[in-house]
Automatic annotation (TrEMBL):
Name by which UniProt lists this protein: diacylglycerol O-acyltransferase
Feature: compositional bias, Basic residues: 544-555
GO cellular component entries: plasma membrane
Positions with biased composition (Low complexity): 491-511, 520-543
Reactions it catalyzes: an acyl-CoA + a 1,2-diacyl-sn-glycerol = a triacyl-sn-glycerol + CoA
Length: 555
């Protein structure tokens, strides 16, 4: 019996039919040369041999009586792999857009809580001859970095799957669920331990809260009550509404090396560049709906609290709020403003990191949190109150080498994530094998055209690269020659002064300087980034003219 932490269980309690709390991925794979087998059956066999490598595959929830405390994980002794791994075929002609629509439908329904909280779907019929695999796992079981570790259990570094030692035989208890008395006793013991832990960490938590909410005034040297620096409510937009369970989904990709070059040339980070690209795309997308907020959009950015080397299948994450500076027109200036805002958020998180509880007392929390979450969604309060953030933007570092599943090479590896009430769009990016894979997951009624936003992200990356290159070229260009300083005139006699002044001779024009072009500036400095190009995995995207849209009613 393994108790869920307060952080893990909150993803269960906040889940509603309109707001499923599972995350996923879409892998597109290249089959081996001359492959003639049944890939679906191969995947079932491959995964079946590795279920014991990650606990999430073989454990399910046992709910507490009357939901008075968080549930516990128990082993599923009768796992039905045919339920968890399924097979579908995309209708003809099998385009990428059809695949994305299918994934959006697969991502909409809730997972069955009576079984282990994961599913996998093998999808065939793509026009390219490739095969796709869609997976989803409940967020109560893993966070983003734990998901990467989970993938490592299933995937290989070569087309030849590694040999995995079979699991040791386990004693079968032949119980579908635990008894009421056993669960109640476990809940009581766990609650006592949580309160003891809370008391032990309370001094650290109070000191951290004091440093954030009562900062020292630099002018007076005294503490004063204030909100965290830079924290402001976000403006209302058409994407900040209550959502339904219907989803829209799109993927795009950008070369990782190019984005790293942009970060280096602008003295920012890769995360900053990703957020700047998202900001440019959102600015253009909302303008088509005549939405031009006076205040900048705000992104909720997950920040991992996981220690180096920690691969526990639990959630260890916090959030910071970052201004997307969408009120700034110039892409480079917008990037610099985002960099400054992100650094402020990181400093605040650094002050409280050790005091953020991952586990906390849960007595009575399940029914209370579930009731509040359902009330918030059904009352459509998200349509009326100012949002804390406009969009979630998450960046998950992934493997930088090609991976294989059941002998097939993974060509693209795109994330699928969670929209929420008040934030109908989630942008998650994941690096894989030299590429930044972008996954755009949204409420279909709020953003049926999420693919357009993906196109605008490609354009925004080009615009940012041009802005950085132009700034670098301007900085390297030699200054124009200044005209010679005028000499002091000799003192004049009274007689000379009485004469009319002669016409002044126009100063000589400054010598023309040879203008340095951006191309030469790039040749002089190899570190200056080139304009990014779309990943080969993407079809060529064409710039679309701006058009005025009508915001969707409802969400």
């Amino acid at each position: 019996m393994n108790h869920l932490s307060g952080m893990d269980a909150s993803f269960l309690h906040l889940e509603t039919p309109e707001m499923p709390m599972h995350v996923g991925s879409l892998m597109v794979l290249d089959l081996p040369e001359g492959y003639v087998g049944d890939f679906y059956e191969n995947v079932k066999t491959h995964v079946g041999k590795r279920l014991h490598l990650a606990k999430v595959f073989q454990r399910k929830l046992a709910l507490m009586p009357f939901e008075l405390a968080n549930p516990v994980w128990v082993d599923d002794e009768d796992l039905d792999i045919d339920h968890h791994i399924r097979h579908l075929i995309v209708p003809r002609p099998g385009t990428r857009e059809q695949l994305e629509r299918l994934v959006s439908r697969l991502h909409s329904p809730l997972l069955d809580r009576s079984r282990p909280l994961w599913e996998m779907v093998v999808i065939e019929g793509l026009a390219t001859g490739q095969v796709a695999v869609y997976t989803k796992v409940h967020h109560a079981a893993i966070d983003g970095q734990a998901g990467v570790a989970l993938a490592a259990a299933l995937l290989d570094l070569s087309a030849e799957p590694r040999v995995v030692k079979p699991p040791r035989p386990r004693r079968q208890l032949n119980r579908y669920q635990l008894g009421v008395a056993e669960l109640a006793t476990a809940a009581l013991g766990n609650t006592v331990r949580q309160y003891v832990k809370l008391v032990q960490t309370l001094p650290t938590t109070l000191r951290a809260a004091r440093s954030v909410l009562l900062p020292v005034d630099e002018a007076t040297g005294k503490r004063r009550l204030a909100l965290p620096k830079g924290w402001k409510l976000a403006p209302r937009t058409p994407i900040n509404v209550a959502i339904t369970n219907q989803r829209s989904f799109a993927t795009r990709a950008l070369p990782l090396a190019t984005l790293k070059q942009l970060a280096k040339a602008s003295n920012t980070s890769l995360n900053d560049v990703v957020m700047a690209i998202c900001a440019g795309a959102l600015r253009r997308y909302l303008a088509e709906y005549d939405c031009k907020p006076d205040k900048p959009l705000v992104a909720g950015v997950p920040v991992s609290l996981r220690e180096q080397g920690n691969q526990d299948m639990t959630n260890q994450v916090s959030f910071i709020m970052v201004s997307l500076a969408t009120h700034i027109k110039d892409p480079l200036e917008r990037l610099r403003a985002i960099h400054a805002s992100a650094n402020t958020g990181k400093r605040v998180t650094g002050q409280v990191k050790g005091a953020i509880p991952m586990d906390f007392p849960s007595f009575g929390a399940p029914w209370l949190m579930s009731g509040l979450a359902s009330l918030y969604g059904r009352s459509r309060l998200a349509d009326k109150i100012p949002p804390v953030a406009n969009v979630v933007i998450s960046n998950v570092p992934g493997p930088q080498a090609p991976l294989y599943l059941a002998g097939a090479k993974i060509a693209t590896y795109s994330p699928v994530s969670i929209p929420a009430h008040g934030m109908a769009l989630n942008i998650t990016v994941q690096s894989y094998n030299g590429t930044i894979e972008i996954g755009l997951t949204a409420c279909r009624r709020a953003m049926p055209d999420v693919g357009d936003l993906g196109d605008y992200m490609i354009d925004a990356a080009h615009e940012l690269a041009k802005s950085i290159a132009a700034a670098a070229a301007t900085a390297e260009a030699p200054p124009a020659a200044a005209p010679p300083a005028p000499k002091e005139a000799p003192a004049k006699t009274a007689k000379a002064a009485s004469k009319p002044a002669a016409a002044k001779k126009a100063p000589a024009a400054p010598a023309k300087t040879r203008r340095t072009t951006p191309v030469r500036a790039q040749r002089a400095r190899p570190a200056t980034p080139k304009t990014p190009t779309a990943s080969p995995a993407l079809a060529a995207t064409t710039k679309k003219p701006a058009r005025r849209r009508t915001a969707a009613t409802g969400a």
